[in-house]
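Posted in: Structural Biology > Protein-Ligand Complexes

Title: Requesting predicted complex, zinc ion in pocket

I'd be grateful if someone could produce the 3D structure tokens for the following input. Sequence and ligand are given below.
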Amino acid sequence: MHCDHTASAEQLVDIAEQRCRELGVRFTPIRRRVFELVSDTPGGLKAYELLDRLSTEHASARPPTVYRALDFLMEQGLVHRIESQNAFVACPCPEPRPDHHGGFQLMICRACGRVEEMHRLEVTALMSQLVAEHGYTLERQTVELVGLCPDCRSAA
Amino acid sequence: MHCDHTASAEQLVDIAEQRCRELGVRFTPIRRRVFELVSDTPGGLKAYELLDRLSTEHASARPPTVYRALDFLMEQGLVHRIESQNAFVACPCPEPRPDHHGGFQLMICRACGRVEEMHRLEVTALMSQLVAEHGYTLERQTVELVGLCPDCRSAA
DNA sequence: ACCAGTGACGCAATAGTATACCACTTCGCC
DNA sequence: GGCGAAGTGGTATACTATTGCGTCACTGGT
Ligand SMILES: [Zn+2]
Ligand SMILES: [Zn+2]
Ligand SMILES: [Zn+2]
Ligand SMILES: [Zn+2]
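-- Reply #1 --
Done. Output follows.
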């Protein structure tokens, strides 16, 4: 039920490559590099920060370059968008599943920017029930929880 | 526990005015008009749409004009931001409370754009528990649920 | 090996969202 | 009336994201 989310950035890249092969989609050098950069940044990366870093080694990079790569990675469920911050974070799951795609929760430290991802079925269940009470169906959930992480809390 | 959310736009404006008086903050003509425009739009309004509408009657309106008004209204809890859409929606609560401020959930129809607001304590409780298990504190939650409303579902 | 079809990329322009800054006015208070 | 704080006008700019089009590279079938 819980996957462990302890994979290193390198491991995530290997897993992503493997996964793309299985799905028959192309993990091109640009996509790979973008995924590496996002994976290396625990707090998530803004698109133009990403562009800056990518530019240093890939001079022809432009906004569409990074947005296209991010769109691809999001479609594969390898990267998620943090809506409340216009930022992008790598999915830490070693084995992203389809049901996970629209059903994860992010926990964000407002002090240090750490982001942790959860995918708790109870949350999805509660949300489904909630919307059902109003006659809605649930297709996608955005859940972003902002607070203080243990480290920052004890520092304060 | 549940407030009814059936107030008309006019009623919401009156309530907001009353509320600002109580709090000792100024419900200026610009702020009032922005709140009216947002309240009149059930699916929420984008900032520049709002600017367009405001401009027709208030020629000197500029982006800062509307963002300042929106910031004020959000501080008072009269308007919420829909993070996943860069849009703003009026809080339908006749009596917004402080605990409500960071603890509401939005249900959004992807077909017609309707937005309904809920503030269910069970959700906040579950989120608090969830983050507590990871040692975090919870200060603010963004919960946006996208799906089909009853009308759009039966139409499909 | 050849070719057509598709998808990825390079590149320029533009659309859309939000803030910084400074001057001036209005308000509430003394 | 004088004062400080808050609100507004106005300009500029920063930040975020998409469109459109031409070209190139990979893929699959022949
Ligand atoms: Zn996971
Ligand atoms: Zn922290
Ligand atoms: Zn309410
Ligand atoms: Zn609908």
